[in-house]
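Bug #2210: token dump truncated for ent-kaurene synthase?
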Amino acid sequence: MFVCFSMAGSQPPMSSNPVFPLVPAAIPATCRESGSLLTTEFSNTNLFVSYDDSRRIQRIKKMFDEAQLSVSAYDTAWMAMVPTPTSSMEDSPFFPQCARWILDNQLSDGSWGLPLPRRDPSLIKDALSSTLACILALQRWGLGEQQVTKGIRFLDFNSASLKDQKQHVPIGFDIIFPGMIDYAKDLGLNLPFKSTDVDAMLAKRNVELTSGFGRNAEGRRAYLAYVSEGIQHSQDWDMVMKYQRQNGSLFNSPSTTAVAFSHLQDPDCLRYLYAVLDKFENAAPAIYPLDIRSRLSVIDTLDSLGVARHFTNEIKMLLDKTYQCWLQGDEDIFLDTTTCAMAFRLLRVYGYDVSSDRLSPFSEDCFFNSLEGYLKDKTAVLELHKASQIIYREEPILEEISSWTMKFLKQEFCNGSIYVDQPGESISTKVHDALSYPYHVDLERLGHRRSIHHYSDIDSTWTLKTYCCPNIGNKDVLKLAADDFNLCQSIQKKELKQLGRWIIENKLDKLSFARQKLGYCYFSAAATLYAPELSDARFSWAKNGVLTTVVDDFFDVGGSMEELVNLVQLLENWEVDGSTDFCSEQVEILFTAIRGTIREIGDMALARQGRDVTRHINDIWVELVKSMLKEAEWSKNKCVPTMEEYMKNARVSFALGPIVLPALYLVGPKLSEEMVSSAEYKNLYEGMSTCGRLLNDWRGCSRDSEQGTVNAVSLLLLEGGRTLDDAVEEVREAIEKERKQLLRLVLLEKEEKGMPKCCKQLFWNMAKVLHLFYMKDDGFTNEDIVNVAKSIVNEPIHLAP
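Reproduced locally. Full output below:
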């Protein structure tokens, strides 16, 4: 039996109190009694979007149109320093519009760079670098004497930050900034830095430039090419040009490309620089183009905050384009680790069939011999780790990536270096969550709450040679997510009150043998089927969860063999009515509650499906109680089944059928009789149930052994030839195999007559619930589950003003 609702073979507690106080003691009489009535009120999603949120949605949709990158004063300055090649004296700028931008965009404190309201206090080194680059550009052409003076005052006032170890360091700062100081000397500029500090920076730069290449030689060469503006005349330009891309750029970096053009007058470099100015008119971003990564980041952000369902069409259009770029081998995907990993993950999750072979360049050795590997790019490693979780076949490359990225991230997290290359706690939090809640464990609503809690504009700041701010950090997104979460929660609170009333009206609280686990049962629905319009599905899921818990306790400890047989016969006959058919009050209470729930769900399904599925729902229940009766007979007769006999029955007796299968009729699409009798339907159900049963047997093997209960581990031991550890490992590997197969069935689209994706998702939702509940022990004793359940159903989100 599913741990969320029971623990087969264990003695249930006799208390009728819920495990946590989700259900108020007093239930208002005005609460609706029927899930279908509630859903009639909540059937239209648009009814739940306020006017303000509707406007927010429209503004957010514009984020899909194009990647709106912030311009970079640093990169604009290096473009402004490009001389006109045809001038013999090289005394005029090739891109005078960039010089004008610098003159017009100095900040009030004398600096250039991130706008002051957005500048994190830990980003002063970035401001120093951008400001010095702009000063050099103006001095180079004899412009803006007043701006130069103000800029130098800013350098003077903030010079102490150069030695501040708590400051975040842009990529290449230790090479580029001393290089700019040298260039300032050539231009006759007196900078306000102590000579001892300058000497120390120059010495550090010299060490970095002359240190050996080591095992990641290619990564170091790429790094030195990327920071060419800090090397200039000492640079090996032939080596640098090996990194030129099809668009003419070097690393999609305007600053690197501008410096290369200054030295080489390469026409493809110039073509790229013109393209940048065509797009941004008189300035340059820190990286261009960034369309694919930026737009994928928008999808990922909306997904992580729980509001992606409001942008279904936009997401599909964007992913269709991304898939075409993937198939065409677009270098904007495959030359950037983060973009490639994110594209792979999102395409797979949304049902596109993409091969993991394209991630082969990110094996441990290959990655650490790349630019990102040389820089120990934590964001890239984190994205690779998340991508490696979407594994649904035997894929050695994903298993290898999962192994080395997990080891790397744990090590970086433990030693504190996870903080050094990005401001705020964003990357640290994301790493913690990814390691603590793998994809197959993380319930959607739990992830949404964490993401909303930790969301900030700093999340959208990317670390390059300067800090890049694309348009994924957006207060509209955060407010929409918080409103959506609180709206769903307010609906769920009402539903939970109704379910509490339903338990009392059906006298389930009078059954002294039964555990009262409404809170857990409803939590598993609310955490996965959270949209307002899925109210019917939540009611079906939770009610059947409560009933399967009680029935399992009845078959385990609460009923005599006569009562068990009586309940099975009543459900088989179905139409029977009258007290003479019940051998006890317990049987009457159970049968009446089950039959009433089946009929209620049948009525709700009829309205959606256009056909009566009541008999099918009843058959699901009959199959369950018959499997439970067989286990009771095995126990009574001290019969030990074969592994094959055990698993065939145990998949059903785990009791996921009544919880998940009826809910399929209530999530939207019409399901034909052909669909629910197909091999795909059967495989989804068996895969989910096998995962659950084996998880229960793995985590509960010690308990079952003490109680003399048969499970998969004990049967493997009876077969002989293996130790307990061997048997446990065999079961664990079987779980992993079943999980991969289940994920493949869920994610990959089938023929037109196959199960709709939103229906298949319910099987995966339940598998995730199971893995979460069994993550540490075998179920109800885990106080963490109590706390997260409260956070979903009881605790609204309050945003800071």
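Output looks complete on our side. Strands lie at 462-463, 467-468. Marking as cannot-reproduce; reopen if the truncation happens again.
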